[in-house]
Amino acid sequence: MACSLTELPPPLSCISLVAIIIVYLIICYLVIDLTHPNDDRSGEKDCRGLSAEELQKAACFYYHKVGSESTCAICLDSIQNAQLCRAFPPCSHVFHVQCIDPWLTKNMTCPSCRSLYEVQQRFCS
Q1: Interior angle at CA 85, CA 82 and CA 80, nearest 5
Q2: Keyword annotations for this protein (predicted)?
Q3: CA angle 86, 92, 94 (to 5 degrees)
Q4: Which H or E run includes 104?
Q5: Which residues of 38-71 are buried (b: 16+ CB within 10 A; e: fewer)?
Q6: Quick one: pLDDT at residue 122?
Q7: Vertex 102 angle, CA 58 and 122, to 5°
Q8: Are 81 and 59 in a shared domain?
Q9: Do both 19 and 75 map to the same domain?
Q10: Mean pLDDT score of the chain, rounded to an integer?
Q11: Total domains present in the chain
Q12: In this structure, are 109 and 71 located in the same domain?
């Protein structure tokens, strides 16, 4: 004999319904929190990436290396001589400027080793 929700005693069916609603609300909260991580912090400085001014101050150079070939970890293409590149300061990994600049506007870490990019006078709380 199978038991359905309509056959349960009234207090037990109410408890089951409340439990389902609570689980649903918890799942909704987690989904919203994961998809919008920092939207409710209006007064705090965004520490996720470099600003346009900070990015312009970052050094870039024309790649020149004789011998071993280097690869950009973002586009996975080889870095050729005379291509405009940036070296990530803490770890010295080299990337194409057109690849690393969009990355740095969203992230403060090296795409290869996750070293933190530190900008002078940048304080985040």
Answers
A1: 40
A2: Membrane, Metal-binding, Transmembrane, Transmembrane helix, Zinc, Zinc-finger
A3: 40
A4: helix 97-106
A5: eeeeeeeeeeeebeeebbeebeeeebeeeeeeee
A6: 45
A7: 45
A8: yes
A9: no
A10: 76
A11: 2
A12: yes
Could you list the beta-strand ranges (E) of the chain: 61-62, 70-71, 78-79, 84-87, 94-96
Assess if residue 41 is contained within a domain: no
Q: Which domain holds residue 85?
A: 46-125
Is the pTM value of this prediction over 0.90?
A: no
Mind listing the pLDDT tens digit of every residue in the chain (125 residues)? 555 656 666 777 788 888 999 999 999 888 887 776 554 444 444 457 778 888 888 788 888 877 777 888 888 888 888 888 888 877 888 889 988 888 888 888 888 888 877 654 344 43
Say if CB 84 and CB 57 are below 8 A apart. Answer: no
